[in-house]
What we know:
single chain; 267 residues; mainly alpha; 12 helices; 81% helix
Amino acid sequence: MVVLVLALVLSPIGLLGTRIVFIHLAIVALVTWALRRGMVESARWTAAAGRARSAGEQVSALFRGANLRALAWTASIYTFWGLAAGTAGIFTPYVVETLGAGTQAAGVALSCAGFVITIFSTVFVFMRYNDRSYRTRRMMWGIGALFQVAAYAIYLVLPFTVPVVIANIVLFGIGASLAGEPTYKVFSQELFPTMLRGTAQGFTFGVARTLLGIWSFFVPVLAAVEIGPVALLLTVFLLISGIIGFFWMPDTVGKSLEQIEAERAAA
């Protein structure tokens, strides 16, 4: 939201405004890096590090057995979902303005509203109910996936107007909290051994963001005339993520990291 508002405020100064946004992001990254260097590792990580094999053996273990299955599952749900989420987060103001549904300011306001909806839905629905039972978690994922598919499917049958854009943002905002990054973040922590957890998350995150970057080159071209082609592809992406997440979701509800790791090793 800060980036969106900053970009809007700085838009009158053109390219310099864009550069200021990126400089601000670089500063945030450097501050975060400096703060992280002062963090103390957890007792769980320290104990696992004492038993760890060589780095090469650890990485090779990531691409075998239960770890490979977990890697494929988390990468699949996050990559296909991320293509839609990234498009919504980056290009909503551009599409709203380009296709004449509203001004750049209106597009930014709508994007910010989407983030607010996702934040509140995550805090008051996802965090409160997601770990109650496996059935509840799958049901929440299924509902969220349907909301997100509907969010872009409506562009295929309704005209591209502000009310339809608002419907898209509300549906996607709620759906993303139930069948999006929060769920990915839970499973990317729970499905991998302590010494592989960061590597696995970095790998899946890197794959998803790289593909999003490539996809982003084509979005302005596809959306310059009408929203239909982009909406159709995003509907398909979200449908794939939703199906994979629902039918192949592992059961980790209420279990400690050690219990999950022992069960997966035995399997």
